[in-house]
Amino acid sequence: MLRFWSILVVVLPVAVLSAGCSSRPAGGPARVAVSVARVERRTIPYEIDATGTVEPLRTVAVTSQIGGMLQRVRFAEGEDVVAGQVLFQIDSRPFAAAVQQAQANLSRDLAQAENATRDAARYQALAQQKSVTDEDYQQRQATADALNASLQADSAALTVARLNLEYATIRAPLSGRTGSLLVHEGNQVRPTDGAPLVTINQLRPILVRFAVPAGQLPDLQRRGERPLRVMVRTAQDSSPLVEGELSFVDNHVDSSTGTVLLKGRFRNGDGRLWPGEFVGVTLVLGVQADALVVPAQAVLNAQQGTFVFVVDPDGTAKQRAVTVQRTVDSVAVIGEGLAPGTLVVIDGQLRLTPEAKVEIRAGPKTEADPPAASRP
């Protein structure tokens, strides 16, 4: 029995020692497996991405200038109309009668004014011959002047009556798409109501409004008179991009958001862009030659700023602070902190600490790769 316990005492330390030796490779701490990429210089398009809203080039709320009964609606709601097309017909009979009355008043006063003018001329001659007094002539002349003034008022009244008759036929002020019909045949139309009969949106061409950070304003100002392309992505990602031109840059920076309002103009021939729709916008400022780029996943954020892990020739990972100018798709454009050809870690950074040894499992072959014999 004593011999059995003595065997256990001897064997157990040996087993523990063996287990401890297998958890660590010979030659120091285990290397961290990472994927790397080289810092490169490329020609990168200089673009600004934003979210925009589609809005019509022009919107008109069609209202009535006169009151009356709506006799006929000459379009279907939601239909495309052209400028000058008849939309509504208001009962025109009262306005036609007002035109006839105004014409009659004008004819009557015209005859009276002509007679009074001749009478005043005759009295003027008699006053010069001392056959009538000057007071008689002045009275006749005043009567003629008053009738001529009434004649002008009658002419203006006839113009207003004809205009009201014309207003009885309501036409489209622009070409576009009609909205929902708010008044139907048989209803009374009153100009004082303020509610539109229908709203028309001009869809061709159409605008997309979006905002960019104020820091991009110098780049916009440097473009001069050169037109800038604006690309729009609709909710249907599979559809091709819609291309237009930048048509408007606001004259001030919104102090509450720190952005500048821009608008792009699009032909919208196929009607894909719809008012009120949210779209993705890309403003193409130009092309940046020899841009220093790394994969965007290589860049990490911390309280001190952005940084990457670089791999030295001896396989040591070091933290390097960098300045990112912008991100284009999956590529980050680096302003400061890196040189071309430097190896940066693109996968496995979360397991890294400064001065950690790494094993490159993917990426370009380099002298940073440790010899196969030294790898655990």
Explain the layout of strands and helices:
Blueprint: H1 2-22, E1 32-38, E2 40-56, E3 59-62, E4 68-73, E5 80-81, E6 86-90, H2 93-128, H3 134-167, E7 169-171, E8 176-178, E9 188-189, E10 198-201, E11 206-213, H4 217-221, E12 229-233, E13 242-249, E14 259-266, E15 278-295, E16 300-302, E17 305-311, E18 316-321, E19 323-328, E20 331-336, E21 343-347, E22 356-362
Parallel strand pairs: 1-22
Antiparallel strand pairs: 1-21, 2-11, 2-15, 3-10, 4-6, 4-9, 5-8, 6-7, 8-10, 11-14, 12-13, 12-15, 13-14, 15-20, 16-17, 17-18, 18-22, 19-20
Helix pairs in contact: 2-3
Describe the structure.
Helix content is 26%, strand content 37%. With 376 residues, it is of the alpha+beta class. The protein folds into 4 domains: 29-43 and 290-374, conserved putative lor/sdh protein from methanococcus maripaludis s2 fold; 48-58 and 205-288, Beta Barrel (Elongation Factor Tu (Ef-tu), domain 3), CATH 2.40.30.170; 65-91 and 169-201, RNA polymerase II/Efflux pump adaptor protein, barrel-sandwich hybrid domain (OB fold (Dihydrolipoamide Acetyltransferase, E2P)); 92-167, Helix Hairpins (Orthogonal Bundle). The strands form 4 sheets. A 6-stranded mixed β-sheet has the order 16-17-18-22-1-21, with no helix packed on it. Strands 2-11-14-13-12-15 form a 6-stranded antiparallel β-barrel. The chain has a 4-stranded antiparallel β-sheet with strand order 3-10-8-5, with no helix packed on it. Strand 16 (300-302) and strand 17 (305-311) form a beta hairpin. It is elongated, with a radius of gyration of 43 Å. Mean pLDDT is 87; it is low at 1-25 and 365-376.
